[in-house]
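Could you help me review a protein record that somebody else here produced? My question to you is simply how this chain folds and whether the tokens agree. Thanks in advance; the entry in question is below:
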Amino acid sequence: MENIRDPRQHVNEEPRDDFADTAMGFAVMFGFMTVVFIAAVVLKAVIS
């Protein structure tokens, strides 16, 4: 019977690049916040 708690027997089925995932998340969030900032500035300029 296999030891199901042995991490050596669990192959990483989908290897991920953690740095690329983090960089992509940062870039997407930065872009979204930039759009929100620009929209807020334009809205404030229109209101004023």
